[in-house]
Design brief:
- The structure is a homodimer of 267-residue chains.
- Chain A has 267 residues and is α/β, with parallel strands linked by helices.
- Chain A has helices spanning 3-14, 36-44, 56-59, 82-94, 113-122, 135-143, 191-200, 230-237, 258-266; strands spanning 21-25, 47-50, 67-70, 99-103, 127-130, 155-160, 180-185, 208-213, 221-226, 243-249.
- Chain A has 2 domains: 16-130, Cobalt-precorrin-4 Transmethylase, domain 1 (3-Layer(aba) Sandwich); 135-266, Tetrapyrrole methylase, C-terminal domain (Methyltransferase, Cobalt-precorrin-4 Transmethylase, Domain 2, 2-Layer Sandwich).
- The first copy, chain A, has 9 helices and 10 strands.
- Mean pLDDT of chain A is 88; it is low at 257-267.
- β6 of chain A pairs antiparallel with β6 (155-160) of chain B.
- Chains A, B: It comes from Frigidibacter mobilis.
Chain lengths: 267, 267
């Protein structure tokens, strides 16, 4: 080995080429709802940082030699704050490793992808985003229904009930108008405020509500109720996170008037 | 062959067990954005009924012996009205064939899945829905952006500009409020009405607009503009269907006042 090539090797060791980062959607749970592109990333990764909600069956499809690091973000948990996750994925890439940041559902939908994108770009690292099947889509498919229905619900609203700590509650009333299917994410703990907000806005309390937990997994369960009864059903049912709450307000819906208003009030 | 077994065979021929129907999401275009489940259905199908927007690369992943039938639904085309599509998929299943109805994107999002589900169920045929990556999700991933951004856009509205023939125009104003990313599907021909409706509703005309055509395919292109300039850009640009029009109204956005209002009026 010549002195020059030794120097080159040392220089390479000292500052390896940064590895790429891919923010990969793991889909809603069922491993076969992964995309082919996501599978390829998992099979080429050196290290995979994954969330609490990623199904173990998805991880089993990854390259056996890949290191798998749990960055367990429970709702409200602070052991893996976002800044720490940003730091570890960037550090791994700077060591030249091919990094997969595996996020349940679609990284672009309530996945806090922007924070990880900005951290990676600030470090000069290229990032790919691989979209995934979001839970609302899988949940409705499991129910054998369409999220939109032509002439009845021509729009689909995906909203989260859980905003940034310190932020005011979301504008509940703005989530739902006639002709809309609302899929509310992370709403289990916010049902009382959410239902009250919709009632104040004059949303009919007899609208059909469907709650789906753990969509596409073996633990999936669903319940159909009305908006008026939703808080009571939720309290009784012990629905875990992640659950999706669907509310369908068809263009043809006519409020059933005073009787249902009373039912709404009784809850 | 015994007379009994001959009779059995004849009986089987006369009324075969109906085949299953799967409404399968083909994803936005790129073949590797297909899910593993969708791939399995394509590889087990006897017959595949597919739309204009399904990429040929997706069809090449199907079982070679599967019959592929184009049921080319262009926007506004009437050669394959929905009722005819319903009839042919049901007839194929009743002949005992395993039917895949391959729909671009996600069958549950603007896919008219309900009409096909109802036709199949009326004939007593079981239907599976296999969710797919919808175009908005793929388009935003291609741009390297998130559809929602925590603390800025906490909700995502997917809306279509093209409703049932004879229906009034959609409630444009209800599509967009602060804190929302709007992804408008099938909007290319409706941009003038849409922009005017938002302006009447007081939506700031300086909001950022991104148009993405043919997301995830080799022909993908995107343009960034403002809501005020959108009609002119659209008219000049010749954006084909399918294009997604994204409008982002962050919670932090402050209308830039009179000057931008004038710009809005000038278009």
């Amino acid at each position: 080995m010549t002195p020059l090539s030794m120097l080159r090797r040392l220089a390479t060791r000292a500052a390896p080429q940064p590895g790429p980062i891919a923010l990969v959607g793991a889909g809603p749970g069922a491993a076969d709802l992964l995309t082919l592109r996501a599978l390829r990333h998992l099979q080429q990764a050196d290290v995979i940082f994954y969330d609490r909600l990623v199904d173990p069956a998805v991880l089993r499809l990854a390259r056996p030699r890949a290191e798998k690091v749990f960055v367990g973000k429970e709702v409200g948990a602070s052991d893996w704050p976002q800044a720490r996750i940003n730091a570890v994925i960037v550090a791994a890439a700077l060591r030249g490793r091919r990094v997969v940041r595996l996020k349940s559902g679609d990284p672009g939908i309530f996945g806090r992808a922007t924070e990880e994108l900005e951290a990676a770009r600030a470090a000069g690292i290229a990032v790919d985003i691989v979209p995934g099947i979001t839970a609302a889509s899988a949940a409705c498919a499991s129910l054998g229904r369409s999220l939109t229905e032509r002439g009845q619900t021509d729009r689909l609203m995906l909203a989260t009930a859980t905003c940034r700590p310190g932020d005011p509650d979301p504008d509940w009333a703005g989530m739902l108008r006639p002709g809309t299917t609302l899929a509310l994410y992370m709403g289990v703990r916010k049902v009382a405020a959410f239902t009250a907000g919709l009632r104040r806005a004059g949303v009919p309390m007899d609208l059909e509500v469907t709650i789906v937990s753990a969509a596409s997994t073996a633990a999936e369960r669903s319940t159909v109720t009305t908006l008026a009864a939703l808080p009571a059903v939720m309290q009784a049912g012990g629905f875990p996170n992640p659950s999706i709450i669907f509310i369908r307000w068809s263009k043809q819906h006519r409020a059933a008037g005073a009787v249902l208003h009373l039912v709404g009030k009784a809850v």
